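ping. complex inputs:
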Amino acid sequence: DAKTTQPPSMDCAEGRAANLPCNHSTISGNEYVYWYRQIHSQGPQYIIHGLKNNETNEMASLIITEDRKSSTLILPHATLRDTAVYYCIVRPDNTDKLIFGTGTRLQVFP
Amino acid sequence: GAGVSQSPSNKVTEKGKDVELRCDPISGHTALYWYRQSLGQGLEFLIYFQGNSAPDKSGLPSDRFSAERTGGSVSTLTIQRTQQEDSAVYLCASSLRTSGAYEQYFGPGTRLTVT
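pong. complex structure:
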């Protein structure tokens, strides 16, 4: 399974864009990149996923480099409610389990 | 609609006792997963059910842990002879599995404390 590397923590001012990086240099061609977040004392929440192309939904944008070795999750206008641990996960298509790393703890401040 | 529900929300038990944790997945979801999260740690995969296929038990930490899924819906995770290191939040997730990519919906978890 490809492993991911994320910074342990980041800060972001409310209203600004939060850019969360993730390295997955050993990713293979059939592996998707997923992002989940976990707000304190809650279960993880799905945010977005991608394979090769950049993706955008109502929550965030996902930018994947051309070589697919890294990606960035973008929260365009962070709010205090976005304070959470953000997990970048690479899932092979021959398995259904998610392998969570330690994630990035994002703190949004007023 | 209703999300994934888990019960109880909190469970305190004495070392050596058996416990059962319940998960009600989203109606119609064919796949069900159990994870656990120890204090300050990331999530650890335990077991996965998909339809009528044999479950993937590769994440179960010992033979004290078992799980079943009855009628393709509700699942029960059983821990026998609990130990203090079993203390954690146990999370259940379900998904409407299709080919390619799909998301897992998580429940709120059961916080287990073994004294």
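Residues 87 and 103 of chain A are 4 Å apart (CA to CA).
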